[in-house]
Design brief:
Layout: H1 5-28, E1 36-44, E2 49-52, E3 62-70, E4 78-81, E5 84-88, E6 91-97, E7 102-107, E8 109-116, E9 124-128, E10 133-140, H2 149-154, E11 158-161, E12 163-165, E13 171-174, E14 202-203, E15 215-220, E16 227-232, E17 239-243, E18 246-248, E19 254-260, E20 274-279, E21 285-286, E22 299-301, E23 308-309, E24 331-332, E25 345-348, E26 354-355, E27 367-370, E28 394-397, H3 401-415, E29 427-428
Length: 429
């Protein structure tokens, strides 16, 4: 059979055109058959990240809620541990935080096409890792609709760490303070939000933030020698504040609390809410001005292993009525309890060998019990250490018989020295 050449050419041209058109259509068709369509992913307080079908109602244990499309597992893009929510190269059309005190750790290149805001939306801390970038589209909800990240910062909804805003206020890029994505450690000495803890890091307790945990500075990380210094109370601290003997940090290890940092309570914004302080038995040193000017603290219980009380440690605690010095304390710093007008009783422990000048100057001391046998020279008690206390103060030596034989008489002599503040109306025995 003979085939018309023109007809054949037309047929071939038609088939080629059809094939091209079909290819283009396939290319422009949404590829949702190859991906998870409208994947709703939620993070929960127990650390799980789940894909949720449909628009499920918000539950009390839900931390984060977002929608995105991917052919991978949600855990490839989102993980949650404690108060740290980590995202990796996540591009989401909808993102919402439901719990207070969450830190969002951003890895890679991430995008929020829309950040959902409600009247009750809590503040979010965005922590950038090295080389990370976060693009944030319009905010959605109430007065924040259409606003930028800069507007959200002003409104108190977002705080950025380790990154800077672009000029248009819609992009956050990492800077020199960004943390290492593999360890969580900042290149500068800031708060460590990861699990790799190093000496010098400032940290909170495991699964906690600075709002509900005291802040600590790491001083030792070797096994058997892990230690921290207590730097400041939790933001919501009030009433009785207990400085525990040890704390579990983000790496899951237990660290001994061996010191209280300089100005730990003095620089605390809500220090007037503190009424009592209990110092744990691992603490060996109380820093300078650690509890200075706490107007409402009535009792400070010093741990049994404290060796040194720093200068001005409790100065100006005008409501303080109880602050005995336990047996292991060796040194009481200058002005340690100066101006503590309601402190009428004091026990000086067995090992005290030095009391700084004005240590109890202008306090209300009336009854002093001296157990130490090491204060046998006037040089060991500074000038006016007990100056201007109660004019009828009673000072009694409470040593063992063997210690009293050698130390009682010279100690009495020291406490009758005018240099330390003695007046003839005192009773020293």
């Amino acid at each position: 059979m003979r085939v018309n050449k023109k007809s054949s050419n037309r047929f071939l041209s038609f088939m080629l055109a059809f094939a091209l058109a079909l290819t283009m259509c396939i290319g422009f068709m949404p590829q949702k058959v190859l991906a998870v369509t409208n994947c709703r992913v939620c993070a929960y307080t127990d650390g799980t990240v789940k894909e949720v079908e449909g628009a499920a109602p918000t539950t009390s244990d839900m931390v984060m809620d977002c929608w995105f499309e991917s052919d991978g597992n949600p855990s490839d893009f989102i993980s949650y541990s404690g108060s740290n929510l980590t995202i990796n190269n996540l591009v989401t059309s909808y993102f919402k935080i439901l719990k207070e005190n969450q830190t969002l750790i951003v890895n890679g290149n991430c995008t929020f096409e829309s950040y959902m805001v409600e009247a009750t939306t809590p503040k979010l801390i965005i922590q950038m890792t090295k080389g990370a970038k976060l693009n944030v589209g319009d905010f959605n909800g109430g007065e924040m609709t259409g606003k930028s990240v800069s507007d959200a910062i002003t409104a108190g909804l977002i705080e950025i760490k380790g990154g800077k805003l672009s000029a248009d206020g819609m992009t956050i890029e990492s800077d020199d303070d960004a943390i290492d994505p593999t360890s969580g450690a900042s290149s500068n000495t800031g708060e460590n939000t990861g699990t790799d803890i190093k000496v010098g890091d400032t940290v909170t307790g495991k699964d906690a933030t600075s709002k509900d945990s005291a802040t600590y500075k790491v001083t030792g990380t070797d096994e058997g020698k892990r230690s921290v210094t207590y730097e400041k109370p939790a933001e919501n601290a009030s009433g009785t504040e207990e400085i525990k003997a040890s704390v579990i940090l983000k790496d899951g290890n237990e660290y001994k609390v061996t010191a209280i940092g300089d100005g730990a309570f003095k620089n605390f914004e809500k220090k007037d809410d503190i009424a009592k302080i209990i110092i744990g038995d691992n603490v060996e040193q109380i820093g300078k001005s650690a509890c200075e000017d706490l107007k409402n603290v009535k009792e400070i219980k010093i741990g049994k292993n404290v060796k040194k009380i720093g200068a001005k440690a409790f100065k100006g605690c005008v409501a303080l009525t109880k602050c005995d010095v336990p047996d292991n304390v060796e040194e009481i710093g200058e002005s340690a309890n100066e101006g503590c007008k309601k402190l009428t009783k004091l026990t000086i422990g067995k090992k005290v060998k030095k009391i700084g000048k004005k240590a109890y100057y202008q306090s209300g001391l009336k009854n002093i019990k001296v157990k130490s046998s090491k204060l046998t020279k006037a040089s060991k008690i500074g000038k006016n250490a007990f100056g201007k206390i109660n004019k009828k103060a009673k000072v009694k030596m409470k040593m063992t018989k063997s210690e009293a034989k050698k130390a009682k008489a010279p100690t009495i002599k020291v406490f009758k020295n005018k240099k330390i503040g003695y007046v003839k109306t005192w009773s020293v025995s």
